[in-house]
Specification:
This protein has one domain (about 1-220). The chain has 8 helices and no strands. It has helices at about 1-15, 20-40, 50-90, 90-95, 100-140, 145-155, 160-185, 190-220.
Length: about 220
């Protein structure tokens, strides 16, 4: 039962979020390349520096933070409303009467699934954003594909990827934990379920931004 529920949550959180993550990532990478090129107009600065800036910005900030903020809205509201509906319709009470640990059965698979799929979505977002920036740079004649690829390899610090994954795991716990809390403790009816979903999304976004600042201060 637990394994089946975990796999279902991986599908709900990960697979069904691929579309929105793909669209955002591709355009974020393209916009980053265009705006970076617009700011670096000096002939002294080599064009490969554009790829360096885009690479580090995407890996350190855009891929983990923007992806998780979007997931807080998409996944967080779903988790909160799902648990809230179960609470209001007394399904959670029925499970508890049958002797089932509802927190372990309903909340734990969501948190574990977030730990599994959110970092994968962050990696996918980073790769797609860089490809989107490369495509935009070549299509707009900002720099050639060879120059962009060269810039990606210059002064690359593997720790940036580690830092991005640390942020991804932290944000995944924030999204699933806060959303589950608000949904599990809903009292009332349909109106309260909507209010709980809104509170879960807003609180998750604020917590992600605060955690982003804290991790950057501690680990960079």
């Amino acid at each position: 039962m637990y394994w089946k529920e975990l796999m279902q949550q991986c599908i709900d959180i990960g697979i069904r979020s691929l579309g929105i993550v793909s669209i955002i990532s591709a355009f974020i990478g393209a916009v980053s390349t265009v705006q970076t090129a617009y700011q670096l107009i000096s002939p002294i600065i080599p064009k490969s520096a554009i790829a360096q800036i885009v690479r580090d910005t995407i890996i350190l900030e855009f891929a983990p933070t923007l992806t998780c903020v979007v997931l807080a809205g998409v996944v967080g509201s779903k988790i909160s409303s799902e648990l809230g509906n179960m609470r209001v319709s007394e399904q959670i009470d029925a499970l508890e009467i049958m002797g089932i640990n509802t927190k372990a059965f309903l909340i734990l698979p969501k948190i574990l699934a977030s730990f599994i799929v959110v970092p994968l979505l962050v990696i996918y977002s980073g790769v797609l954003s860089i490809l989107g920036g490369r495509f935009a740079g070549t299509m707009a004649n900002i720099l050639s594909a060879e120059t962009f690829d060269k810039g990606l390899l210059i002064n690359f610090n593997p720790y940036n990827v580690t830092f991005s994954l640390i942020k991804a795991y932290t944000f995944s716990f924030i999204i699933s934990g806060i959303s589950s809390y608000y949904g599990y403790h809903v009292k009332g009816g349909a109106l309260e379920i909507g209010q709980a979903s809104t509170k879960a999304v807003v609180t998750s976004c604020i917590a992600i931004l605060l955690a982003d600042y804290a991790l950057a201060s501690l680990l960079l």
